[in-house]
Amino acid sequence: MKFFLFKSVLIFTALLPLRYIHFMGKIVGKLTWLSNSRIRRIAEKNINACFPELNQQQRTLLIRNILNETGKVILETGKMWQQDSAKTLKLIQECENEHLIKQAQDQGRGVILAIPHYGSWELVGLYCAEHYAMTSMYAPQSDPRLDNLIKQARQRTGAKLVPTDIKGIRAMSKALKNTELVAILPDQSPNENGIFAPFFKLPCYTMTLLPKLAKKTNAVVLFTYAQRLENSRGFKLIFRQASQDLAALDIEQATQQMNLDVEMLIRENPHQYQWTYKRFKKQPEGCKSIY
Question: Which of 96, 76, 130 minimizes the C-alpha distance to 223?
Answer without folding.
Answer: 96
